[in-house]
Every structure is written in C-alpha cells, then in structure tokens.
Write the structure tokens for this entry.
Amino acid sequence: MTTAARHPLVEDYLRRLSSEAARLPVDQSRELVADIDEHLLAALPGDASEAEVRNVLERLGTPDELVSAAGATLPPPAAAPRRFASPGGAIGCLVVAEVLFITGPLALVVWVVGLVMMARASVWTDREKWRGFLAVGSGFPVVVLLFFASTMVATTCESWSSSDGTSGTTCGGTNWVAIVAWSLTLAYLALQVFTIWGLVRSARRAQRRGDERGDLA
C-alpha cells in the first residue's frame, strides 16, 4: 500500500483543491495548497487506512469550502462578454479593417470593435495587449496613410527648346516617395504578421491552461 501522503484520495483532494484555489490570488492559492498538503502529511501516518484518510479529509471540509473560507469569490459567469472579447475576433476585426480601409466608415467601425475586443480579451497580458495595439491595432490608420503616400506622383520635369523654335516639357525620374512608402508598408506588414503569430500562440497557451483547470475541477 502506498503511503498516506500519496494515497489516491489525498492526491485527488489536492488536485481539486488546486483547481478551486485558482479563484484566489496566485500567492494565496499556493500558500493554501501548501498548508493543506503539510497538514495532511502530519495528520496521516504512513500506514493509514482508507477509512482514516476519509475521516481526515471530511474533517477538513471540501476544497470549495476551504477556498471560500480563505476569501475566494466565484468568477461571474459572463459567457457573452467572453465571446465578445475572443482573441480571434479581435485580431480578425483589426485585419478586416485594414483590408476594407477604402470603405471608410465601415472599416472605422470594424476597427473600433477590434480595439475594444482586444482590450477586453483575458488571454493576453497587459504587455501583449500593448504589442497588439501598436503593431496590429494601428494598422487601419497606418495603411490609410501609407496608401495615399504610395500613390503620390513625385516626378521631375524639365523644359526644353530646339533650334527650330519648338519647345516642350519632359517629365521623368524615379518616384522615390512611392518606393519608400511601399518599402515601409512591406516592413510594417511583416511586423504585423510576426505580432499576430505571437498573440495567437499566447492565446492558445492560455486557453489550454484554462481547459486543464476545467478538467481538474
């Protein structure tokens, strides 16, 4: 028989306690689980029977009761806001706003919705959100500016006249404004792709952690 500290009932109790303690601040959650684990090690001898283990666990109370006593509050079941603040929807709206920038008001509305969704998404840290705002959220106004800059015609013109009395103006030269604008556009789009890739990875990791906590509950 395994020792009481690693008894299946104890392991199951500690797993459920860890899941419930996720409602607490991180430091308080770790302290609570560590205290209960230490208490069980001291209260149960190595050769404790299953009945003795059950009695000790019953005296402790359920994991939910312990967490509630520690000052936890249940998170609000706000399903609709979570869907509204989905990471995929936030990134999608910001990208669509860039693609539809030529539509003006419609793209502006989609852009604002994307910014709000990114601000409310719970899968990203504040630092990640700021990266999203700067690299992806700025896309709509930046693309508009770069588009108009890239379509500017910057040519050089020279007047000429010939010995037979004819004259005219010849325009030519390199459109450096357009070249610079398109170069900046490509660099900016590369930055956006890299940032979106990082945000998607972070969102998936956060969602996996949430699924794991749900499986343990």
In short: The radius of gyration is 31 Å. The chain has ten helices and two strands.
